[in-house]
Write a structure and sequence with these properties.
The protein folds into two domains: about 350 residues, no CATH class; about 80 residues. It is about 75% helix and about 0% strand. It is built from 24 helices and no strands. The radius of gyration is 24 Å and the shape is globular.
Length: about 450
């Protein structure tokens, strides 16, 4: 019976993945041309550099995207195809590995379909024709989750290596994923540090910390934190009297002319300030300060104004942080795959984004003690996917005030997918208990 089910389920998976791939590819054919944006040129420049050169790994953008683009000669149409097929493979792998995490045969098919259908949401597949890091980063994220489920099922060295490879892929594609690994590493220690899996938890945390350190160093060499300081000065610090005075008192050269420009409501003035800070000759003193001590002073600033740091994702950018509207980035010819708006909303809730965030986190907090008591290690993954959405939102808000919505897509996907995974895992836990109760209620048969 088990062999028959396994054979039928395998056949079902093959057919489902085939249809899923057909739907994704057919929808992609409607796109007129790949969509470029302001940063596309920087990614293309990175892809033009030799892989074994120092400049490739320390360019203005994280090198992961350029590494992929080089395999297709940086041709926009071929990049589109590469990103599309990589995404199809990654989400199919996640769907397969997620089903291995549940024991109930009744739940495996709907969970498999759910994982595939979830990736048909606009905020996931819309990035395939987008000439940026989003599509490749989200694909690596899906593969990272797939490998995590696979590793938790049975700890093997080769599975750990695969997980770390995908972790490296994520961080080399988007710097913010390095901080996600840092958070996971720090949480692993108290959660698993006292149990039988202590040595494994330490090894995984050490590996994640090492990846974080390497990623951070590459970002520093590429002057990415420095550029973030310039952007924050123009868009967040100068527009505020309180923030400007704080940095003036801590040694930052302040140009009153640029301060006035940054507070001008006229469109584009703040970005003109950023350009001036970056290139104007009379800002050389400011740029020297930004390179030498700007990053450290900015971290101190975030802690000094910690009420703003931890609350402004709710009071200032809640819509962008917890329901990012990124339709603006869709390519010409974009069409939704899920035509039924109610189904699309069910799979990937977008209305009442802040309300959904609080409900999701309360749900996760409720199940933490149950997961601990019942030793449900597989629940650890969706719980982290949900509970780490807030610190990631804070990180996005603090790192770059420009385009918070686009930078918030990944943690919103993780949170919503985490809710679905958690619900399935809870059902998988409850079904045997419910079945046992039914058997208990049945009258016992006579021994005779």
């Amino acid at each position: 019976m088990k062999k028959t089910y396994a054979l039928l389920f395998t056949l079902f998976q093959v057919i489902a993945i085939g249809y899923y791939g057909y739907v994704r590819i057919h929808n992609a054919e409607r796109v007129k041309e790949p969509r470029s944006f302001g940063d596309t040129g920087e990614y293309l420049h990175n892809a033009s550099l030799p892989v074994f050169s120092r400049e490739f790994w320390t360019d203005l953008r994280a090198p992961g995207t350029a590494l992929f683009w080089k395999t297709v000669g940086s041709d926009p149409e071929r990049i589109f195809q590469l990103q599309l097929y990589f995404s199809i493979f990654a989400w199919a792998a996640l769907a397969y590995c997620a089903t291995q995490a549940v024991a109930s045969n009744w739940l495996k098919p709907p969970l498999f379909v759910l994982a595939l259908a979830f990736s048909l949401s606009r905020d996931i597949f819309m990035w395939d024709p987008f000439l940026g890091s989003e599509s490749i980063a989200l694909s690596f994220m899906a593969l990272f989750l797939a490998a995590a489920f696979w590793l938790l099922r049975e700890w093997k060295a080769y599975k750990l290596i695969l997980l770390l490879c995908f972790a490296v892929g994520m961080t080399l594609t988007r710097d913010t994923f390095a901080y996600l690994l840092l958070m996971i590493a720090l949480i692993n220690l108290p959660v698993f540090g006292l149990g039988k899996a202590r040595s494994k938890a330490l090894a995984l945390s050490f590996a994640f910390l090492l990846i974080f350190g390497i990623s951070s160093r590459l970002a520093e060499l590429g002057l990415r934190p420095y550029r973030a300081i310039l952007m924050n000065t123009a868009l967040r610090i100068y527009p505020s009297d309180e923030y400007t005075n704080y940095f003036r008192e801590h040694g930052m050269p302040v140009d009153e002319r640029l301060v006035e420009m940054s507070r001008n409501p006229e469109a584009g003035q703040k970005f003109a300030v950023n350009i001036a800070l970056t290139f104007d000759a009379d800002q050389a003193g400011y740029r020297q300060w930004a390179q030498e001590s700007g990053h450290a002073q900015y971290l101190r600033f975030l802690w000094f104004f910690k009420a703003d740091t931890f609350q402004k994702v709710f009071t200032e950018t809640a819509g962008q942080s917890f329901y990012p509207d990124v339709f603006y980035y869709t390519a010409t010819g974009y069409r939704p795959i899920l035509k039924d708006a109610r189904l699309a909303e069910l799979l990937y809730p977008t209305r009442f984004g802040l309300f959904f965030f609080f409900i999701a986190n309360l749900l996760a907090a409720f199940f933490i003690p149950i997961a601990w008591r019942e030793q449900k290690s597989v629940w650890y993954i969706p719980l982290l996917m949900i509970l780490l959405s807030y610190p990631q939102a804070v990180l996005v808000w603090a790192a770059d005030p420009n385009d918070i919505a686009r930078h918030s897509v990944s943690h919103n996907i993780l949170m919503r997918l985490g809710v679905w995974f958690l619900l399935f895992f809870v059902l998988d836990f409850l079904i045997p208990k419910y079945s046992a109760q039914l058997r208990f209620l049945k009258p016992a048969k006579d021994s005779a």
